[in-house]
Design brief:
Elements: E1 3-7, H1 10-20, E2 24-28, E3 34-36, E4 43-44, E5 50-51, E6 53-55, H2 60-72, E7 75-78, H3 84-96, E8 105-106, H4 114-122, H5 129-156, H6 167-183, E9 188-197, E10 204-212, E11 215-216, H7 222-231, E12 236-249, H8 257-268, H9 272-284, E13 286-288, E14 292-294, H10 309-322, H11 357-360, H12 366-382, E15 387-399, E16 411-422, E17 450-462, H13 471-481, H14 489-499, E18 503-506, E19 509-512, H15 514-526, H16 533-547, H17 553-574, E20 586-590, E21 597-603, E22 606-610, E23 620-622, E24 625-630, E25 637-642, E26 648-652, E27 661-662, E28 665-666, E29 679-682, E30 686-689, E31 697-699, H18 703-715
Parallel strand pairs: 1-2, 1-7, 7-8
Antiparallel strand pairs: 3-6, 4-5, 9-10, 9-17, 10-11, 10-16, 12-15, 12-17, 13-14, 15-16, 18-19, 20-21, 21-22, 22-23, 24-25, 25-26, 26-27, 28-29, 29-30, 30-31
Helix pairs in contact: 3-5, 5-16, 5-17, 6-14, 6-15, 8-9, 8-13, 9-12, 9-14
């Protein structure tokens, strides 16, 4: 062996090996190899925050093998991902393998194809310690906050809780939004809608009331609306003005990390974590029939809109061949990169624009195809000509019987529409950005023309509270406020939803739990900086300055921690002996020993019931989560249980006398129409009866049908 290349994943190793040939051995580190000791702070705050690293559990054998390979190699190339985490992994590898930091060759690939790999190998650089220190600073900051703050909130609210430097800010955004929703007071308003048709067409279109002869009028109540409806009885509708114009729709820029996550959520219903996992697979390489292992997209963690001129030229060639010259803009389109964006990587684009989604579809999973298709179409569309639309706005005067006595009195209506003169980029990628108020194509109308009113009605409306965050809108908010970076959005959301129990998903919306609200309120009261978006965004900017060599990371850590430590000590003193009780922790179960109502506690092995009279009364008992369903075998209560790995299943409370268990979730307040037993929802959307010999099953109603049934129930 003469040359060793170390990358992060086996898939990436396989793809790169194809382009380097027999003189190279390509091995994978399987991600991070070294980290702070997991069971303690591992940061020496009295010695300039010196970190204490250890090999990650399970990686010892791999490090031994890589060390032996490195000793046999004439050259070692570290080709981990081209970002902060990747730079840190290269540094940790060099340290563990005994390589000279200043002489070890660091290689970066923005995309994994033959030209990019060979060019990267031909132009290696050194490990950038500024980037490494930025990653170290972030890791140390997160450890300091997590290990110092988590015990405090655990003591004050519930055992086993944790706080995070960035995650806590994300939870605060969700909690604040919920408070806005709860405080919202709806206001009534009305509209008047006329369904009209022109003499030249049978098409009916809707025009909206906008005012009267005095100008714009806002309808605030039914009495005011009824007054105008009375004026409009038997009204004559006349075209007062037709204004024609042209508008150009510009395509959206190619994806960056945040917009890819948002669009995959909106169009495909994918979580941010799922989107990034699939994008990583497409970047590292997949086996394509007739080609072999190839990376299909550029690096997926980026916030730059820049694309290479080579990629632009290849994309233009495809557009020219597939759609014709007229589908290219007169001048190349360049998108403005937002302030503060890192420009180290290109936007997310196909590595080879000529590889269309259909060309590689048979080689991809369904999910990979969907993400690749989204990325490919968005990139190609971003290079294409604008969509050109002919617009028309029609002002309509309506003179009712009361108004007919005066030529100066009338009601104003308006309608807008458009037709597509040239489809441009929309022939490939429809971004759904048209004005929802536009009526589409309108019939031909001229000034002075009389229109026929087919229907006229007043409509009551109420202002709506702000919507809860979805994954997509939360990512957008994090990006707008400067909290987190492209590489962290997915893990932020995954952490607050799945691991901490601070946020739950309701359909696609993110809703704070009582626990999440309590933790956030405590942090807002005692650690306002920790959950302040501007402060957290400032920390991110400081990390960027460390990466650029503009700020010493030790000084940055002192600036944060010295103040944080003082705040923590004050919080401990002010809350000595204080315990925050949650409603969700209270029960109506009496203690058998002293009669107090027991409370839910969380221990090392999960939830249990305990007497609140501790230490006078030390009674405890297992926590049982009731489902409301009855056992189909013995009639006992069906309760929720957990496996050792944390998966939920359902079983009879009379175990071990009754051995009924199922993975199917009980359907609330349900009874089998055949035998009266409780029903369960199985995978695949089927509702089943588990009573032996019954065999009843039905397809679960769709969400839309269930929503309609609930609305009908509310109305009745």
């Amino acid at each position: 062996m003469s040359k060793l290349v170390i990358v992060e994943s086996p898939a990436k190793a396989k793809t790169i090996k194809k382009y380097l040939g027999g003189d190279y051995e390509v091995k994978a580190s399987m991600g991070h190899v070294r980290d702070l000791y997991p069971s303690k702070l591992s940061v020496d705050v009295k010695n300039n925050f010196a970190p204490k690293y250890t090999v990650i559990k399970g990686k010892e054998k791999l490090i031994t093998e890589l060390t032996a390979d490195a000793k046999k190699a004439d050259e070692v190339y570290l080709a981990t991902d081209p970002d902060r985490e990747g730079e840190a992994i290269s540094w940790h590898l060099a340290t563990l393998l005994g390589l000279d930091i200043d002489r070890t060759k660091r290689v970066k690939f923005n995309e994994i194809n033959k030209n990019s790999v060979q060019n990267g190998m031909a132009h290696p650089s050194k490990i950038d310690m500024d980037i490494v220190n930025a990653q170290q600073a972030r890791r140390i900051l997160d450890r300091l906050v997590g290990y110092r703050l988590s015990p405090f909130i655990s003591q004050k609210i519930r055992r086993g809780l944790s706080a995070g430097r960035v995650q806590s800010v994300a939870v605060r955004l969700i909690v604040d939004r919920e408070e806005e929703i709860n405080a919202f007071v709806p206001e009534e308003y009305w509209s008047i809608e006329a369904r009209l048709s022109a003499p030249s067409s049978r098409k009916i279109f809707k025009a909206a009331f906008v005012g009267d002869e005095t100008g714009k009028v806002e309808l605030k109540n039914q009495e005011q609306t009824d007054g105008y409806l009375k004026r409009l009885e038997n009204a004559v509708y006349t075209v007062a003005n037709v204004k024609k114009g042209t508008r150009k729709k510009q395509p959206q820029p190619p994806f960056i990390t945040s917009t890819l996550q948002q669009e995959a959520s909106r169009r495909l219903g994918f979580t941010a974590q799922k989107t990034m996992r699939i994008a990583q697979e497409l970047y590292e390489g997949v086996e394509v029939q007739g080609i072999g292992s190839v990376g299909l997209i550029t690096y997926m963690r980026t916030d730059s809109l820049r694309i290479s001129e080579e990629a632009r030229a290849e994309g233009n060639d495809f557009i020219r061949a597939e759609y014709g010259e007229k589908y290219l803009p007169e001048k190349p389109r360049y998108f403005k990169v937002r302030a503060g964006a890192q420009d180290g990587h290109e936007a997310i684009r196909p590595a080879a624009p000529s590889l269309t989604p259909e060309r590689v579809k048979s080689s991809l999973t369904i999910e990979q195809y969907k993400i690749y298709s989204l990325i490919w179409k968005r990139f190609i569309a971003s290079l294409m000509a604008n969509c050109v639309q002919d617009t028309v706005k029609v002002d309509i005067h309506a003179i009712g019987e009361e108004d007919g006595l005066s030529n100066e009195k009338y009601c104003q209506f308006a309608v807008s529409g458009y037709t597509v003169r040239f489809d441009g980029y929309t022939v490939l990628y429809d971004d759904g950005a048209d004005n929802e108020e536009d009526a589409g194509a309108l019939p031909a109308m001229e000034n002075g023309q009389t229109l026929k009113c087919r229907d006229l009605k007043g409509l009551q409306h109420f202002t709506q509270p702000p919507a809860r965050y979805t994954e997509a809108s939360l990512i957008k908010k994090l990006e707008e406020t400067g909290v987190g970076r492209p590489s962290t959005y997915a893990s932020i959301i995954s952490t607050i939803v799945s691991r901490r129990g601070y946020v739950v998903r309701e359909n696609k919306s993110l809703k704070p739990t009582e626990l999440g609200t309590a933790v956030t309120n405590l942090l807002k009261a005692k650690f306002p900086k920790i959950v302040n978006t501007k402060f957290t965004a400032g920390m991110e900017n400081n990390l960027d300055e460390v990466e650029n060599g503009e700020l010493d990371y030790i000084q940055m850590l002192h600036d944060f921690y010295d103040d944080f430590d003082v705040t923590l000590q004050k919080a401990k003193e002010s809350m000595q002996g204080v315990k925050i009780e949650l409603e969700e922790d209270k029960t109506d179960i009496p203690c058998e020993k002293c009669g107090r109502l027991m409370v839910v506690k969380v221990g090392r092995y999960g939830k249990f019931l305990a007497c609140p009279g501790y230490p006078e009364c030390k009674n405890t008992k297992p926590y049982v989560e009731q489902t409301g369903a009855k056992c189909p075998q013995c009639g006992g209560d069906v309760i929720a249980k957990k496996t050792k790995k944390g998966y939920t299943f359902y079983g009879c409370s009379n175990y071990p006398d009754c051995h009924f268990m199922t993975w199917d979730a009980p359907v609330k307040d349900s009874q089998c129409p055949r035998c009266g037993s409780s029903l369960f929802k199985a995978r695949g959307g089927m509702i089943k009866c588990h009573k032996e010999g019954c065999g009843y099953e039905e397809k679960a109603p769709s969400r839309r049908k269930k929503k309609e049934e609930n609305q009908e129930s509310d109305e009745s």
